[in-house]
Amino acid sequence: MNFNEKVLNAVKKIKKGEFKTYKEVARLANNLKAARAVGNILAKNRDVKIPCHRVIKNDNLIGGFYGDKKLDWRKAALLLKDGAVGAILTDTIYGICGSAFNKKTVEKIYKLRKRNPKKPVIVLIGNIDDLRKFGVKISEFQKKFLNKVWPGKVSVILKCPLKKFAYLHRGTKTIAFRMPKNKKSIKILKISGPLAAPSANREGHKPAKNIKEAKEFFGNKIFYLDRGNLVSKPSKLVDLTGKSIKILRR
């Protein structure tokens, strides 16, 4: 088996929801110094059975996909769909994100953030119809309000009574949803599906403004999609579970 075959074989064995760096794949292919060669091999691969998106840069940044740096968002989306956890740009600040439909992934986010287990997380959705996937039923009044504020920097608390989503609503039977306005965020969500997306920081700390700060919290335990420094504020939070609109955070 030549080096090219060893690389592709090693990548094929990376489990869903996991990722490895180019250097780690080079080690598995018995040539620790050939990390750059690994990148070149994967950039040329078009076999869909080889999950190239599960290999990231040695600094845990996403890097390019199919040899194109502009497709890093697609690579991140596929990793998130798999069940991996990563720090990505939302429409407001960096979030530590993972599939909202994967209980194991959501619990990992709670553990990494050292988040209060009783607090629900905000869930990002790509369109209003995604609410149905959570068993959320909205009234005409609610629908009218959502169509007015979404897409945008407004998180809306809605009733989510289904027991199977208790790992998201943490017993409150409500979840805060948001539909981002950022076009790249929507493109990611169309591939990844809804994402649990609390801010990229540990409980009680200020949200990370950049990837360097996010790495101080999470190190090499997650992947990172770098979009530079962000100076935005967290989203407005609105409670829409009652008969009137309650603004909880401006």
Characterise the protein shown here.
- The chain folds into 2 domains: about 1-60, Arc Repressor Mutant, subunit A, CATH 1.10.10; about 75-250, DHBP synthase.
- Strand 3 and strand 4 (about 95-100) form a beta hairpin.
- The model has no long low-confidence stretch (mean pLDDT about 95).
- It is an alpha/beta fold.
- The relative contact order is 0.16.
- The strands form 2 sheets. It has a 9-stranded mixed β-sheet with strand order 9-3-4-8-5-7-6-10-11.
- The chain is built from 9 helices and 11 strands.
- The protein is elongated.
Helix and strand layout, with pairings?
Elements: H1 3-12, E1 20-21, H2 22-28, H3 35-44, E2 55-56, H4 72-82, E3 86-89, E4 94-99, H5 103-113, E5 122-124, H6 140-149, E6 154-159, H7 166-169, E7 174-178, H8 183-192, E8 195-196, H9 211-218, E9 223-224, E10 236-239, E11 246-249
Parallel strand pairs: 1-2, 3-9, 5-7, 6-10
Antiparallel strand pairs: 3-4, 4-8, 5-8, 6-7, 10-11
The gyration radius over C-alpha positions equals: 19 Å
Give, in spatial order, the strands making up the sheet with the most strands.
9-3-4-8-5-7-6-10-11
Segments where pLDDT lies below 50 for 5+ residues? none
This entry's quaternary arrangement is single chain
**H-E string:** HEHHEHEEHEHEHEHEHEEE
> Based on helices, strands and strand pairing, what is the structural class?
alpha/beta
CATH class of the largest domain: Alpha Beta
CATH architectural group of the largest domain = Alpha-Beta Complex
Fourth-level CATH superfamily of the largest domain: DHBP synthase
Supply the number of structural domains: 2
| Proportion in helices | 25-40%
Main sheet overview: 9 strands, mixed
Q: What general outline do the C-alpha atoms trace?
A: elongated
The amount of beta strand, in percent, is: 15-25%
